[in-house]
Design goal:
Blueprint: H1 2-29, H2 66-81, E1 139-147, H3 149-157, E2 168-173, E3 180-187, E4 193-201, E5 209-216, H4 227-242
Antiparallel strand pairs: 1-5, 2-3, 3-4, 4-5
Length: 250
């Protein structure tokens, strides 16, 4: 009894001692609790968050910087301050070439090529080519057309054919003291007389004149031309062969 009683309290003491020794040792080795030290937060700059790039959408370009605008405005001011220098050059333009004239107005076609009339150097003589006179009973009608000096001079010189394609032989007679001039129109191949123009020119003045009448071959040889046909033939022949464009007359 005594043995058991004494052993039990020893074991209890020992266990109690161990319990306290472990607790003290754990308290001894445990690190001291330190309260966190609070440091003053430094102010941070606000930063703009860049959103994630979306697929398929384009971001707008950045706005131009102020110094670029200033440089452009300065450049504009410098440009306006520059002096303007103008260089004037005079260019001589050639005159428009004259339109080609026909050599045959009564039987002309659009497919035939014609050359521009050349001003003869000398007057065509009646004896240059063999000719025939009018047949019996030619037709005569009045014709009132004003002629400037250049046209009177072209009718005065006439036209002497140089090639086979030149179908007209034109020469003049006169003028006399009264200024009367006759212009004869013959076929160059056969010498047949087709028409004759009566011109009255100002001998003492600048040389202007007036077409006063027409005589033409109205027979079978000339296909019985009427007055309108004869005047049309003379108008187109003067334009294409002599370069004389007759005004609309009565």
């Amino acid at each position: 009894m005594s043995t058991t009683e004494t052993s039990q309290p020893l074991s209890r003491k020992k266990s109690i001692f161990r319990r306290f020794s472990r607790r003290e040792s754990s308290d001894r080795h445990a690190p001291a609790f330190t309260s966190p030290t609070t440091q003053p937060n430094t102010p941070r700059k606000l930063q703009r968050r860049i959103p994630a790039a979306q697929t398929g959408l384009l971001s707008p370009p950045d706005s131009p910087k102020p110094y670029i605008i200033t440089s452009v405005e300065a450049t504009k001011q410098q440009t306006h301050q520059l002096k303007m220098i103008t260089h004037v050059q005079q260019v001589q333009l050639s005159q428009r070439p004259s339109t080609p004239k026909r050599t045959d107005s009564h039987h002309s076609s659009a497919n035939n090529s014609h050359k521009a009339p050349t001003q003869p150097l000398q007057r065509a003589l009646p004896t240059a080519l063999p000719t025939t006179s009018f047949p019996d009973n030619p037709l005569i009608r009045p014709w009132n057309v004003f002629l400037p000096p250049s046209q009177v001079f072209s009718l005065y010189l006439g036209y002497l054919p140089q090639e086979m394609s030149d179908k007209w032989f034109i020469y003049s007679e006169g003028p006399d003291s009264a200024g009367k001039l006759k212009v004869h129109f013959h076929r160059s191949w056969t010498g047949m007389k087709i028409a004759e123009l009566f011109v009255v020119m100002d001998v003492k003045g600048e040389g202007a004149g007036k077409l006063v009448g027409i005589k033409w071959n109205g027979g079978v040889e000339a296909n019985r031309m009427s007055e309108e046909e004869a005047k049309y033939m003379m108008r187109t022949t003067c334009e294409w062969v002599l370069g004389v464009e007759l005004e609309e007359g009565r």
